[in-house]
Specification:
25 helices; mainly alpha; 462 residues
Length: 462
């Protein structure tokens, strides 16, 4: 993006000062600032819940259900969807489930390709439906709708999810594993499970309930963080799991410094050796900082989009779409679905793809008076689904990289068990179904809402 902004400057006809001003104009737009603030809070929430052992609670639930090989992919889809909805990050869900649920499924005799697809499908469900998901935030902000949009998209998500669950049950019964491992999965589950990790369902519920009730997204996530923090500390003090204060926020200072002496009584201050450097850490810090690369990328993409608008490129594409394709309400919505699908096939970071296509979705929808909720739902569903389906997609490659670390962690896990991303393409059932649901919705008008059908709050509420 940096190179693109430099190269495009060479095409400026006259004074380049307006070009530079346009870059700043794009970066300082409210859509970028709002998304960045929400991401920072969402990152803190996700890491704090995970520090408290939420995944361990899900592992315990899977073990308690005494799942067999045939049902394991379907239940993995459900639990991955639950985690992704709670923490709002599909990539985080993919990593967490790859390191534990995938090898457990292989041990049980589940088909590895089917397990790969089930984990990706669960990540898609949460990315699409979570109030704290980056795709939810961007789709709401760019279409001038509030965070209550998540309630309106449930009907689409649940149709695709029910069909995907049935698909994984049927496929699990038909497709066995080509590998035979001489160990049981029970010990793997027992060693990595803790039923009290499920208390963070309360943290998840607080975020979802407050967001759907109309609270500002920063306020909703903040309350979720507070509840997660209290639960973690309480469980840690009782010796029942959770996470101590220093796992969530810690300031490390060298021994002998004035600061360490005066603040040593605080529970979040850690005294290190005399030669150590001062540092800050914990889930609150790591969760927020994990979004920094994405924040920079989005700022540059928004700047590039502003250059397209001022340079006339955006208007040229928009006019082409409106004149040749989006000539009626039905065709306008089909253009939205097809446009988001095409952009997400090329830009495999789903949030970046959303930012790129969002202005077109907004203009086309406004032309036909389509409600912001409906536009946001079309934008988010395709971006969530297709970012985890193509072999070159970000979510798929994140999981593929994580898979390659498993032979080092488990002596029985061989290189042959690593699933090639190309193989999983047909088995990400929720992705295909969610895309198909919106394709049918656009063609038939199912769920169509016009501006007058729903009055959403100002974008500032997001």
């Amino acid at each position: 993006m940096l190179v693109a902004l430099i190269v495009s400057m060479l095409f400026v006809k006259d004074d380049r000062q307006p070009y530079a001003d346009t870059i700043f104009e794009g970066i300082t737009q409210q859509v970028a600032a709002t998304a960045i603030v929400a991401w920072l809070w969402a990152g803190m929430s996700a890491d704090t819940i995970q520090a408290g052992g939420f995944v361990s609670g899900l592992v315990w639930a899977a073990d308690a259900l005494s799942l067999g090989a045939a049902l394991f992919p379907a239940i993995t889809f459900v639990l991955a969807a639950l985690l992704a909805t709670g923490i709002g990050t599909g990539y985080g869900t993919v990593i967490a489930f790859t390191t534990l649920f995938f090898p457990a499924g292989v041990l049980l005799g589940a088909n590895p390709v089917l397990m790969f697809g089930a984990i990706l499908s669960g990540a898609i469900f949460g990315d699409n439906l979570a109030p704290v998901s980056d795709t939810t935030i961007v789709s709401a902000v760019t279409q001038n709708s509030d965070i209550g949009v998540v309630a309106s998209r449930f009907k689409y998500a649940i149709i695709a999810a029910v069909l995907a669950f049935a698909g994984y049950v049927a496929a699990g019964m038909m497709l066995g594993s080509p590998f035979e491992v001489g160990q049981g999965a029970q010990s793997l589950f027992v060693e990595n499970s803790n039923p009290l990790g499920l208390v963070h369902l309360l943290s998840v519920a607080v975020v979802i309930a407050t967001a759907v009730a109309g609270r500002h997204i920063v306020g909703a996530i903040s309350w979720g963080i507070i509840v997660a923090f209290v639960l973690n500390v309480s469980l840690a003090l009782l010796g029942l799991g959770g996470a101590p204060v220093t796992d969530m926020l810690v300031f490390s200072t060298p021994q002998g410094s004035d600061i360490s002496e005066s603040l040593a009584f605080l529970p979040f201050v850690e005294i290190l050796g005399p030669d150590a450097s001062a540092a800050v850490g914990g889930s609150l810090y790591s969760g927020a900082s994990s979004f920094f690369p994405l924040i920079i990328l989005i700022l540059l993409i928004v700047a590039g989009a502003q250059i397209m608008i001022r340079g006339g490129g955006f208007e040229a594409i928009q006019d082409l779409l409106l004149e040749r394709f989006a000539t009626s309400v039905r065709r306008a919505e089909l253009t939205m679905v097809g446009g988001t699908a095409l952009v997400n096939a090329m830009i495999t970071i789903n949030t970046a793809a959303e930012i790129a296509i969002a202005p077109y979705i907004a203009r086309i929808g406004e032309r036909f008076n389509i409600n912001g909720y409906r536009r946001a739902n079309i934008l988010d569903a395709n971006s969530s689904a297709l970012g985890y389906i193509f072999p070159w997609g970000g979510g798929v490659l994140v999981r593929f990289v994580e898979l390659q670390t498993l032979p080092e962690q488990f002596s029985w896990f061989t290189g042959a068990m690593i699933v090639n991303p190309v193989q999983v393409f047909p088995f990400v059932f929720h992705s295909w179904l969610l895309f198909f649901v919106f394709l049918v919705s656009a063609a038939t008008g199912f769920g169509l809402e016009f501006v007058a059908d729903r009055e959403s709050a100002e974008v500032a509420r997001v």
